[in-house]
Specification:
alpha+beta; 5-stranded mixed beta sheet
């Protein structure tokens, strides 16, 4: 069954700049394995060192539901379905730093 995997911008460098990759698979895990086989450089960014468990910061959605709330990598994907990869993003500024920055912005306007 054909399944489309949506690739986030941060990982497109490992898929030949493709925003979507179509693979043949019946589960989310099989789809990701097919993606990693077709684009080997992406594997290290999706899986932990053993190569079977997803990295904790990679969220995988079938439709609009995170597979962590379903059957994990065994979650079925319907023919013509879509899988979306969403890496978690960390960082940013603390609330104090945001307050300081907005205070400086007010000074510049004056």
């Amino acid at each position: 069954m054909a399944v489309t995997i949506q690739i986030p911008t941060a990982l497109r460098g490992f898929t030949g700049r493709q925003g979507e990759v179509t693979v043949e698979a019946e589960t989310a895990g099989a789809a990701l394995a097919a993606l990693a086989q077709a684009h080997p450089d992406i594997k290290q960014h999706l899986y932990q060192e053993g190569g079977t468990e997803l990295r904790s910061f990679i969220n995988v959605f079938v439709g609009e539901i995170n597979i962590k709330k379903l059957k994990g990598l065994d979650t079925p994907v319907p023919s013509g379905g879509t899988i979306m990869l969403v890496p978690a993003i960390a960082g940013g500024a603390s609330c104090g730093a945001l307050g300081e920055a907005s205070g400086r912005a007010r000074q510049w306007k004056a």
